[in-house]
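Long-time lurker, first post. I've been practising inverse folding by hand and with some scripts of my own, and I keep getting stuck on stretches where the structure tokens seem ambiguous. Below is the full token string for one chain I'm working on. Before anyone asks, I'm not after the true native sequence, just a reasonable design that respects the backbone. If someone could post their per-position residues I'd love to compare against what I wrote down in my notebook.
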């Protein structure tokens, strides 16, 4: 998606939170946190209202928020696919794989949903006998695993407890 769309969407998020919830935050991550902690009552009609600020329909806003916009705050899980595959060979459940992966990457932040989907896919393939691990693919190269965290922010706290409930 274009940078212009990200900017318009970020502006729409700010406008929505300021107008409907009378809140103003210093960073877009704070807006993200606020949006994700709203009660279901407060979320009612949220995407329709956000869409009015950026000329998108409610479904498009919701999908863009979850599938594109939120990714700016987290490490891409795809860069850690080889590590996840190796961990999955050592543990029986996705919860154990996630817990070990987080333990091994304490200073990195991962999107909960993206991590759960990746781990559950890897574990499912392993159970079905499709556990071929290739570290040679460009996406899984060791160089990518060791690259510095461009999204790192020491103030970001991600509640991993939710992963186990």
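-- Answer (accepted) --
I ran through it position by position. Result:
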């Amino acid at each position: 998606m274009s940078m212009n769309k990200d900017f318009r969407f970020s502006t729409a998020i700010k406008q929505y939170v300021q107008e409907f919830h009378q809140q103003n935050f210093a960073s877009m991550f704070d807006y993200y946190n606020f949006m994700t902690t709203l009660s279901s009552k407060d979320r009612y009609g949220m995407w329709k209202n956000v869409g009015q600020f950026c000329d998108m329909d409610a479904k498009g806003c919701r999908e863009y928020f979850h599938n594109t916009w939120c990714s700016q705050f987290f490490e891409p899980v795809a860069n850690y696919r080889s590590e996840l595959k190796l961990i999955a060979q050592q543990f029986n459940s996705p919860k154990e794989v996630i817990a070990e992966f987080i333990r091994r990457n304490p200073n990195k932040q991962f999107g909960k949903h993206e991590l759960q989907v990746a781990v559950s896919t890897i574990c499912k393939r392993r159970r079905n006998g499709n556990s071929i691990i290739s570290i040679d693919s460009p996406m899984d190269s060791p160089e990518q695993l060791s690259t510095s965290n461009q999204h790192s922010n020491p103030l970001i706290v991600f509640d991993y407890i939710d992963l186990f409930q």
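A couple of notes from the structure itself: The chain has a mean pLDDT of 81. The chain has two domains: 3-73, 77-164. Happy to go over any region you disagree with.
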